[in-house]
Description:
The structure is a single chain. This protein is an alpha/beta fold. It has helices spanning 5-14, 27-31, 58-69, 108-112, 117-129, 159-174, 224-235, 256-268, 297-307; strands at 46-52, 75-80, 98-103, 134-138, 180-184, 211-217, 241-247, 273-281. The chain is built from nine helices and eight strands. It has an eight-stranded parallel β-sheet.
Amino acid sequence: MENGLARRQLLGMLSLAVPAMVLAPDAAQAARGKGGAVPFRAGKAMLGSYLSLRGKTLTESLALRREQLGREQRIIHRYYPWSGYAPVSEPEVPSSAVLMVSWDGTTHQRITSGKSDRNIALMATRLAGMKRPVMLRWGWEMNGNWFSWDGAHNGKKPAGYVKSWRRMHRIFRENGATNVAWVWSPNWNSGPDVSWNRFQNYYPGDSYVDWVGVSGYNFSKESPKTLFTPIVSAYGKRKPIVLAETAAIGHGKNTKGPWIKKLSQYVTETPSIGAVVWFDTDNQKGTSRNFRPDTDAAALAAYRSMARRARFAG
Length: 314
């Protein structure tokens, strides 16, 4: 979500609803055994979050959610800048959790020209050295117009993104990062919504992607079906799906809980979804929105119920 929130809110308000569809039941069978270094488990979705709670460390935030939900987070989501930060470990992330890293990008030309090879190799060796499963979500929301790596900032040529992705994938492989699962993650709707900027144009190819992700929030009261069905329908039979960024904001009293219930039901009915990562924060720069699932008793009860369902026991 970083830096793109305001523009995505506007896009959400302008977008037309997508007809609701549910993936065919055989999708789980088609995706069985997939997911790369972070295997997809048919019928089981991992539930995790990006945790940034005002006044609390990550360790304290994890303890709060553990107490509220009666379970651990299966995915811990972190954001890394493109350069200047390549950690050798994540001591606050429990060994039982999968680390999901959303790694910033740069212009396509700086990658395809080879100018960023050393930076890419450094991150590859650092993540490989962690010796833990990592979901790498590089250059997310590339079909928007708010990041340096999106098509709008690169000559309206998605092919440059694809070429960048494949180069990075090769460098990671050459540096032994076999513990990394590659997550390709567009925004739920494109901005601008024109033919050259369709999310399909940015897809690197099945050989280069382990999970397909998607960002989607109910900024304009969109349902989970509206937000996620286009991606599920396009890739769910070939790749496991991770709802890489999602959360509900309130639209009046007692509106967040019902949306969480809809999300829980949608995931239950969509077998290709193998992970759900909540954007759990009241501390998002540039906005007063509160994405926490415990803003009121009904919302927390709905979230707790979802977390304890067998479908979310991945």
